Amino acid sequence: MNPTPTTATPRTSKPGQVAAWALWDWGASAYNTIVVTFVIAPYLTEDVAAGAPAGSLSGATWLSIALAAAGLLIALLAPVIGQRADAGGRRKLNLALWSALTILSSAGLFFVADEYSYLWLGLVLMAAGSVFSEFAAVSYNAMLRQISTPATIGKVSGIGWAAGYVGGIGVLLGAYLLFIQPDIGLFGVTADGGLKYRVLAVVAAVWFAVWSIPVLVAVPEIPPTDRAARVGFFASYRVLVRQLRDLYAHSRHTVWFLLASAIFRDGLAAVFAFGAVLARSVYGLSAGDVIIFGVAANVVAAAGAFTAGIIEDRVGPKLIILVSLGGLVAAATVLLFSHGSTLFWIFGLILCLWVGPAQSSSRTFLARLAPPGHEGQLFGLYATTGRAVSFLAPSLFGLFAGLFASDRMGIIGIALVLLAGAVALLPVRSPVRESATL
């Protein structure tokens, strides 16, 4: 990857484009909160899989297998898809395509009734949505430099993350108040056949569809970049290998950042993946309390991401990431020795305060490193490296929880992954601060 390609990605910071770009994250939050985390995944593993034959694998195990297969596809395809979008000037087109496929996979979950025979349809749709949403995120993240300047990139990234969290708040509250809590929800929806959960998959699809439109209208398509990279699909892998060699030769610290960020991003993902489990099994929160905590957590994370984004433009992303990881490890350590719901609320929210800044600054760190015109390829590698180590935090959580026969002790595993990521980041050189006049 030559650091000075022939065509640079245009750099602007127009409020309308920033708002349109952030609204995509606002819309995507419905898929992440409703389908991936709080509603559909538990419905699939608990209700749909409840009638499993004796001796068969659990619903959670089947879901983990399906998502692992999806992760393999992402790891193999994401860099090439990003590279081809850059080369052909199809970044916005790719965003539209993968967003649409994510939306369709979400809507399709409406047909997954709470009978075991529908489990396979649910697993396929969940795995497909995981692949499509990750590919959409590659193009979305690559747009960051298009709608920001060197002086505003941290703030703009923080706005995007904050919009996602705030959108998640609205969707989660609406789902809880209008469909989950009442015996008879909006439009007369009841729990029969899992309808009150299935209809939320459609709500998530519609929400995502509506709010993904502005970015496709307001943000221009990039011009084609490297004509030499505009080759057939399988030949794209040869181009990728060549460009990776160039990247290692000319920008080795970028490679090290991809590896370090993969580690701590896996720890960040584990905070969300196991937070609800710990809230119920260790700290005594009810299912309803967990959803309310999720709303509060999104508020805190949004505030943290937005504030840190403003500060980052002055101090750089590396310091923000390291401080955030330190805060996360400290809060996790306190939670390890805490008991009861009150302390969980206090230190759980403190934990969430640092998640947003770490996520947002990790994205801007790579965006600052990316050679102009190759953002899509680098964010494809960003997705790949993240998937490559995605076993770390779940494995260590399970190891410590199993060794001590306590879910609480799994916190040690998550904290160790976050700490390892911080240590790996320490020797990585910070991105060169570009002139604010560019």
TrEMBL record:
Q: What GO terms fall under cellular component here?
A: plasma membrane
Q: What is its main location?
A: membrane
The residues covered by the Major facilitator superfamily (MFS) profile domain are: 18-433
Q: Which Pfam families match?
A: ATG22
Checking InterPro entries in the record gives:
Atg22-like, ATG22/LtaA_families, MFS_dom, MFS_trans_sf
Location in or out of the cell: Cell membrane
Tell me, what is one Gene Ontology molecular-function annotation carried by this entry? transmembrane transporter activity
Alphabetically list the UniProt keywords. Membrane, Transmembrane, Transmembrane helix, Transport
From the record, give the transmembrane residue ranges: 21-41, 61-81, 93-112, 118-138, 159-179, 199-219, 255-278, 290-312, 319-337, 343-366, 378-403, 409-428
Q: What membrane topology was assigned to this protein in its record?
A: Multi-pass membrane protein
PANTHER family membership: AUTOPHAGY-RELATED PROTEIN 22
- Please report the name of this protein according to its UniProt entry: UMF1 family MFS transporter
Protein species of origin: Microlunatus parietis
